[in-house]
Amino acid sequence: MKYSFLIAFLISLAYVTHAQQTEKRYLSGTGNDNTVNWQFYCTAGQNSGKWTTIPVPSNWELQGFGKYNYGFAKDSSRGKEQGLYKYAFQAPAAWKGKRINLVFEGAMTDTEVKLNGKSAGSMHQGSYYAFKYDVSDLLNYGSGNLLEATVSKHSTNASVNEAERKGDFWIFGGIFRPVYLEILPAEHIANVAIDAKANGTFTAQIQLNTAGKTTDVSAQIYTTNGQKVGTSFSAKIEQGNQSVTLTKALQNPLLWTSETPNRYKVEFSLLQAGKPVHVVTKYFGFRTVEVRQRDGIYVNGTKIKLKGVNRHSFWPESGRALSRKISILDVNLMKDMSMNAVRMSHYPPDDHFLDICDSLGLFVFDELAGWHGHYDTPTGTKLLHELITHDVNHPSVIGWINGNEGGHNYELDPLFAKEDIQKRHVIHAWEDFGGFDTQHYREFNYGIGNYNYGHSITLPTEFLHGLYDGGHGAGIEDYWEAMWHDPLAAGGFLWDFADQGVVRTDRNGGKGPLDTDGNRGADGIVGPYREKEGSYFTVKEVWSPIKLEHREITPTFDGTFPIENRYHFTNTNQCSFTGKLIKVGGPNDVVKPVEKTFSVTVPSLKPLEKGALKASLPADWKTYDFLYITAVDPHKRELFTWSFPISLPNKITSSLVKTDGAGTVARTETDSLYNVTANGIKLSFSKRNGLLKQVGNTTGTIPLTNGPVLQEGVNNFKNITQRTDGSAVIIESTFDRKSSYNTVQWTIYPSGWVKMKVRYFPDGYFTFMNGVNFSFPESEMKGVKWMGKGPYRVWKNRMKGGALGVWHKAYNNTETGEQPLIYPEFKGYHANMYWCKFEAAGNPFTVATENEDVFFRLFTPAWKTDQWHNYEPIFPSGDISFMQGISSIGTKTQRNETTGPMGQKYAFYDYEKEPARAKELTLYFDFSGK
């Protein structure tokens, strides 16, 4: 009996101690990876008209209810589709006399709440904002309670639909963020807003609920691991006063930036008669954000440029219902791309996403929803208050956005400063407003008006609109170099982070394929499940805060790498650099590459300074093929690994190609063909134009034919002859300045190796691409292994992001952003070819080159397009190509040629077909089947 009393006393004491802190009691789960089943009834669409259960949080479409619709789509269920929710729970008797708030972190879109049959308060309208009801007087303490919520997918408020439901994104319904009870003492701290400046000045505005009693509020700042910082500070609140401001000055606090996300925590205590009644803990960072008109954005007195991306809250299997795990994944992916900023398009995110931005370091522009329409003023005023109250203390939030692309309610602009203790700047996305020109999707050369030659700070809140494999990395280097060197440019935000491919539970048993609503949702740098696409690596290199200048590794190379520090707050000596040499094998080698590491001396360079890395190369460095330099940031995150060629293609090819053989080269001819046999290799060439017509070996036929066909050049190979040169046979065309100025020459060696040399003039002053094509049946191709840059394909305006090495990939038919999501994609252009082994069914063959900067092209992807035909890339004829110039690619909103110089055509001056001006391409073929 005594033990029972003691246990009860200890439990009671523990509860009293715990009750001093705000307690959260979840009624739902905490995210899409942790849900609780509620009773559910859907009024329209799939699985409607019956009571069942649904996980909360979730969007009901992804659970098999209602109707899918994209924002642009006409929705026949508008006004009809509702979700009725019920959930029973217990309220301990010990809660009686306390303040109990019922909190919804997010529900789409109109939400009416009842508790035990009574209304909890007025209907909430607006999807992305946390709202709460005081339900202290509605609860049955010590017994059961029934929570009921009616959620309407579309609002009865037309302005809410204009702001949220008619956007260029998927429209979902349901309780998609957590629901919980907030248990506080009857007298408590109701809200805290913090302003912590870079000079160490700390200010907190505290709202109280104390029933008018005289109380004290004290505060103590700590490091995040619990060490006290300075002394406590307090203020007395006189009777009747329900707010207080606390201030404190700290000496030399560690500052918060995207590069140094130093955070603190502060503990506020509400005291009555010297005893704590309620304790609230908040995390924050010391930092000062300034906008200096006609100049730029300054953080802690340092001018910054934003390297950002737009991010929707989205996951294929759960819609807008996410988790902390996904937030960590997304922020890490952004940081790995050297991004320092993210825009919350087009609505506020989950609280845990901002927590991760705080802790890992990303600048955030937080957004009041509004796509091309906006909230009316009464609704917008309420939602703006909820937005800022919820997100005010996050140091990552450096600015607010009042709507997107015309969805701006100007009457709300003054309210941001009224609500925000930090008075953060407000911009309008796609408008010249508040000193910022944020125009979307400007062409690279635009600027005669008020953009590059204007007076506003330029900050495109959307630029390089991704579509499939276009945009993002394609064009970013041209844009970023212009932004970096323009004093009025504050950076920009790419559109957008992830492909929005949603699982359709109403199709194919919910097994896919993922639906991006045509080309509307395939806009990401990463795939729906965060698969890394080619542009991911290009952005990573271009936005690396350590910039390595172009460097040729010549025999006189002394190990010096010129660099520029493009950090804002970090010295290069805080980073670490390592070097590696690598010697690779040939097409048929299965041994691992030979590697040797070397040290790299790091200079002390302040932000924006230039200097040089110094590599301590070993004496035998010239015997290796490639050199790698890897940079790692102070947080042990790889910035990039740059690769440089030591061995050039002519050296590698000369070691591969065998010209001598024990046998002889035999030749015959028919009316139309020259036939040549060497070491088991059989070849036939057209006597009319010199093209390869047939290839075979002892295993069978290799279906590589009809080449070389010139791309953007005239196939005027004429007067084909044959001759011998020692033990080799040569078949070649005859040069004539007027009628056959392009020439082809085939050399067949006794070893069976075949050399092809083409000298040609591109057909025109400007060309999109040039090189030669061959025919090959796609069905016969199983994979490729190559030495060169990889593993992703490239475009003329997206050359960066890859690495030199030996790569392999099996055949796939992936279209970027479409299922099957197999990366890297097989088809397309591949850069810096040395050799490539084509794994044809049963009979492989290898092609090598002695030329630098050769691309090989694998087939033509089944391209989709956009309504303006901006994205459509250009591919050569034939199936397999060896190119010396390749096409660029556009974006959803721009043609390839308007994304900058790299997207434009090649210029070639032929001086009236002067032979010395011809382009020359030499390839070597091994058709032995090895």
UniProtKB/TrEMBL annotation:
Domain (Glycosyl hydrolases family 2 sugar binding) ranges: 52-183
Residues in Beta galactosidase small chain/ domain copies: 723-842
Annotated signal sequence range: 1-19
Catalytic activity from the UniProt record: Hydrolysis of terminal non-reducing beta-D-galactose residues in beta-D-galactosides
Keyword Cytoplasm: no
Single Gene Ontology BP annotation: lactose catabolic process
Entry GO CC: beta-galactosidase complex
Domain Glycoside hydrolase family 2 catalytic: 289-416
Listed InterPro entries: B-gal_small/dom_5, Bact_Beta-galactosidase, Beta-gal/glucu_dom_sf, Gal_mutarotase_sf_dom, Galactose-bd-like_sf, GH, GH-type_carb-bd, Glyco_hydro_2
Keyword Acetylation attached: no
Cofactor: Ca(2+)
Keywords, sorted A to Z: Calcium, Glycosidase, Hydrolase, Signal
Annotated Pfam families: Bgal_small_N, Glyco_hydro_2, Glyco_hydro_2_C, Glyco_hydro_2_N
Residues annotated as domain Glycoside hydrolase family 2 immunoglobulin-like beta-sandwich: 188-287
MF term (GO), any: carbohydrate binding
The EC number(s) this enzyme carries: 3.2.1.23
Family: Belongs to the glycosyl hydrolase 2 family.
Subunit note: Monomer.
PANTHER family (alphabetical): BETA-GALACTOSIDASE (PTHR46323)
Name this protein carries in UniProt: beta-galactosidase
